[in-house]
């Protein structure tokens, strides 16, 4: 057969005008995948490169903390709430302890509140630095990881020097914080304070953190591949975020200037000067950018807090056996991942009658079916990574 | 439930709580700085619609339940007898002043069915799936009421008070040995009480 120009034109038209009838494929991602930060499985219907009907399958890490809390005493519960979002374990303790203190009507000494604030912001920095390390890595840029994790070590060392734990500090006590070294029966009388040199080392560390923010910004914001893969990808409109309960940096990236540190009184944030950073487009890039700015704001907060920390006791007078009077309250806090809250129902006993744990990543992850609808398969990673969830925080 | 403020000085949130209660047709109370509005079950969806559209409470925080039971298999029993029921709770908030309301409604123990909130707040989807598997509450009209955390075929509703905690049945919790004294507390108050939880 000879190909006349006419037949060639005809064949080429056929090839573009007839759609191939292909079957949709069901793609399974996970439960083990580097981008899932834990154990998460996604089932997606894939049509070519497009995903539809993405269904997250969770529960692989469900530990039943709400039930476990019902059979524990109040001081014992801080150990388990530490393990909800393990990247910022310290920050999980604070709203729970504040809820119990609220029911007991305990006034926490100012110095203890400042220490809580400093450590909470350190937890935020270390959590955001993990994000600064992992998110570019998932998109193929390995270098920021080394910069981010180096400074994260520095911050974790400081947390460890105060609390004795890197990931699970278990440092809050109802009525204040635990003294730095040892709280055994022999040392109880001489309540000890922060470790020697803590303020000096913190100042150095915060300067280094601010420096690494600049370095990471140069590395990532100047990377055209990352820009191309994240700008305009996974756009989350603010009204959708609100309806799904998406909170924290993910919501602020969509342009909502709402930060629980500004409106709730769980820690004395009203005495400090810090900005609520917002994005404009609500895409994956803005979510990265907002978190980078939040590291800077947290470092500034810590600098102000160590300048103005008052002296005084670390502990309010509380009974030796903690009994929380009957009552209900909901205390929420701005955690690194978003709104973390505890609805505490007490009946006056040694442990709660019911403890509802509202974790940020749970609601942040529930947006996945909406945000991944119709996106490209490689963009799944770019969008999921930018939401910065931890599966321990999802499954509780 | 008492308010954390005395009756004489009105709580700063008092006016807000009353305005919400009036708008949604419920009764309000303030428990320790938490505005709680109780609504009848048949007003459940409407109350949330009004909260979202008229009161600016657009942010859906969470939904869960409390099992009010007089017989408890795991944990402490209540100190007083209560009406046995499931209390369904949600919390919604605004995104500028930081106001929030916890809505509450009662469901009967024998037939716990509530209308779904998914058409009002899409985020209720997962929360209702969780409440459904954990408390055995049915959400009428829910698009996909399958198990969320628990494996398919799991029998029972773990957060019901009638559900025992197996590990505690096998081995009781250690007693006084792991209670440590609070720093700065005096020794004239010895730990004689058994903190068995």
Plain-language structure description:
With 396 residues, chain A is mostly helical. Chain A is 48% helix and 12% strand. Chain A has helices at residues 5-17, 65-70, 74-81, 89-104, 110-138, 143-163, 198-221, 224-230, 238-244, 249-252, 260-263, 284-308, 360-365, 368-371, 377-387, 391-395, and strands at residues 25-29, 41-47, 50-57, 172-173, 176-177, 327-335, 338-346, 354-358. In chain A, strand 7 and strand 8 form a beta hairpin. In chain A, helix 6 (143-163) packs antiparallel against helix 7, helix 7 (198-221) runs antiparallel to helix 12 (284-308) and helix 12 (284-308) packs parallel to helix 15 (377-387). Residues 182-191 of chain A have low confidence and may be disordered. Chain B has helices at residues 14-24, 44-53, 124-135, 166-170; strands at residues 27-31, 34-38, 59-68, 85-93, 100-107, 113-115, 138-140. Mean pLDDT of chain B is 82; it is low at 1-6 and 187-197. Chain B has 4 helices and 7 strands. The radius of gyration of chain B is 20 Å and the shape is globular. In chain B, strands 1-2-5-4-3 form a 5-stranded mixed beta sheet, with helices on one face. Helices cover 19% and strands 22% of the residues of chain B. By secondary structure, chain B is α/β, with parallel strands linked by helices. Classes of the chains: A mainly alpha (396), B alpha/beta (197). The interface between A and B is large, with 74 and 58 residues.
